[in-house]
User: What shape does this take?
Amino acid sequence: MFTTDGSDSRSAQPTAGDDVQYEYTSARALRGTEARTIAKAAKDGWELDSQTQGKLRTELTFRRVKPKNAWQLCVALIAAHWSAFGRLKSTTQQFALAAAGGLVVFALVVAVVVASRPGGSTPQATTAPTEVTPSGQPSETPPSAETQPDTYIYTGPQYEVVVVDENVGPAALDQYWVLTSPLDYSTDEYKNQIKLIIEDIARQDGSAALIVNVVTDREVAEAEAISTYEQFDAEHGTNYAVNAIPAKEPEHWAASYTGGFDFDAGEASESAEAFEVIWRPYATQETEQWQPALAG
Assistant: This one.
């Protein structure tokens, strides 16, 4: 989620006659979801200033021009036209000062009214969640005698692909958000079940170079996916998205697999180190190098 960790005001490198002031804020994004965080920040007027990639998360710093208040604008206006003001008659000066004061009061009233209006965003139209039947799911019809011994049959838990974000990150990977039933974290067996899900999706995709996030709560997927987070905010409110969803993630975000991307180099890669699973990203944060098999 895009949350403000803190902000400050610093002067940017000014050009001649320029005194631009910026305010800064920072956010942390789970790797692979940086694009979603950057898009959310841009919608609120922030531009990306820098980013530092860590093992599990990316630290993002944003900035935007710090707006001047009505008093600062008034002082700047008076300073710019003071010489001309001094040449006016006294009665004209009094009238000008009264008018300027009225404008300041009006600007302050407008600012208060605008600030008190509830924020909102126009949700983007999104496609309905896609119901996906795991490939190779056994049917009631018994296999024929001609079935080869190595025919792939999916034996993992039932799952549903809630949403797919296309061309995510520098490697332009497709990102799958997958919903499955609650898992038992008391043993490592849940990891084997998740690997079966990831492998099944990779087989259908035809590549191990993709991102698969496995969750056990639909709202986590809808709130975090690049394609649906705006609609989720519009339906549930930003306060719910910022506060309730992070509270769910330690329990319900079971795994995040990224294949085909070297986080150290920041580019696509086919090396073994570029295929990895993070188990329970917001809880144990355990990592494992692993690549799903596409055949056999």
In short: The first helix runs from residue 34 to 43. The longest strand covers residues 21-30. The chain has eight helices and twelve strands. The two ends are 39 Å apart (CA to CA).
